[in-house]
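Side project, low priority. Logging it here so it doesn't get lost.
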Amino acid sequence: MFYLHAEEGSFYGVPVVAGMGLKIGKYHHLGQTVDPDSVDRACHPEDEAVLREGVRRYFPDADGATLDLQTCLFTNTADEHFIIDAVPNSPSVLLAGGFSGHGFKFCSVMGEILADMALNGSTRHDVSLFSLRRWE
């Protein structure tokens, strides 16, 4: 897997696996904020053009035929940090979200943190950065 921060923005992807080609995406692709219930999930030439820019510049050997294009959505918080906290006035309800497309990398520690919080009301990990109160 890779994450490439470049002057055009940030690209991420997975190298060729089992002949499936290079998977590449661009973080905040066209800078859109969308409603997942009504987003246009079709891929358009301008979508591919954004990705081709990165492929041609940084992965020229991968500049072959497009095998597939798909829409990928993920959630972001305003500051792009996770939310991990108890719901105000309902401490037995935990909220974890806003994983911004990269939360999968933290799933094992998220499980530990949330289990600690559910069972003990706290965790040994410093999760203050992820508190809902950061916007107060």
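Brief comment: Residues 85 and 95 are 5 Å apart (CA to CA).
Revisit when time allows.
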